[in-house]
């Protein structure tokens, strides 16, 4: 399989805040194809995809023509579930022809509690979700992407990147 003409990136929790800012840099400043992961707000994720497409097209019209345009798309996946992470990586690599060069693991979750009320803070479901999103999800996504990142590094030594950035979504 021939190497892609541009790098492919996956940004988890990429539809808003820091994740969206990272997606913009990867797509518009570095010219990468970008998959934006989201959990619940499809409209926001699709709006970002449209923004990336519009800005890229405007730059092309302004005379910065590239041979191939990057591909931008959004995929819904609940990163607190390992099976969803595997599906997200599989769909990302399938859409890129079997390539993945950069993973930004930007997911996190917490529920704001009244810390002075011990009873309010002892919710096992919340603790399990917090641990799953803030700890295990980063391991699972790295594991799911490992094969693709190794292949990327074999094509272009040292080019594959996995970056874990914990940004807690608060409820």
TrEMBL record:
Pfam name, any one: adh_short
Record's keyword terms, sorted: NADP, Oxidoreductase
Gene Ontology MF terms: oxidoreductase activity
Entry keyword annotation includes Oxidoreductase: yes
Keyword field contains Nucleus: no
InterPro entries reported for this sequence: NAD(P)-bd_dom_sf, SDR_fam, Sec_Metab_Biosynth_SDR
The family this protein is said to belong to: Belongs to the short-chain dehydrogenases/reductases (SDR) family.
PANTHER family, A to Z: 7-ALPHA-HYDROXYSTEROID DEHYDROGENASE (PTHR43618), CHAIN DEHYDROGENASE, PUTATIVE (AFU_ORTHOLOGUE AFUA_1G17650)-RELATED (PTHR43618:SF13)
Name of the molecule in the record: Uncharacterized protein
Organism: Staphylotrichum longicolle
